[in-house]
Amino acid sequence: xxKPLRQGLPPLDPAAVSDAASCALAxxxxxxxxxxxxxxxxxxxxxxxxxxxxxxxxxxELVTNALRHGxxxxxxxxxxxxxxxxxGAAVRLHLMRWTGRLVCAVRDPxxxxxxxxxxxxxxxxxxxxxxxxxxxxxxxxxHPLAGTLGGKVVWALFRVHAPAE
Length: 165
Description:
Order of helices and strands: EHHEEHEE
Strand order of the largest sheet: 1-2-3-5-4
Structural class: alpha+beta
Strand content: 15-25%
Number of helices: 3
Helix content: 25-40%
Number of strands: 5
């Protein structure tokens, strides 16, 4: 079990954030694709494309982990939609950009900490998500949420080039 990590996370001062966007994701596996599409579209709008493939991969892993481990169970697949409304959303993706930095944060209602698996089976189809997050992001961590919200946030930090003005 990993202890909560906060080091490396930029200050959450709203005045310091250059751009921010978030997307509510329903409890269904199609949400992983929706999160990737939302991330790519947002990064394109912000002019941050130097790490977009890395960011989209990490977002996929964080959302997959939130759906698999942060929820009791998933319902049967339904017709996908891009960023469903907040009502009924189980997971939320936040993207925040500062000058030279980007944070992807995924909130879920689960209380358990993320667990990085030690696996030597390189042909396994699962179990390497946090390894990929650690490999592609410049830093990552998690922290429990307090108050009535409950759950946790798992975040990944990327160093990015500032968009050309």
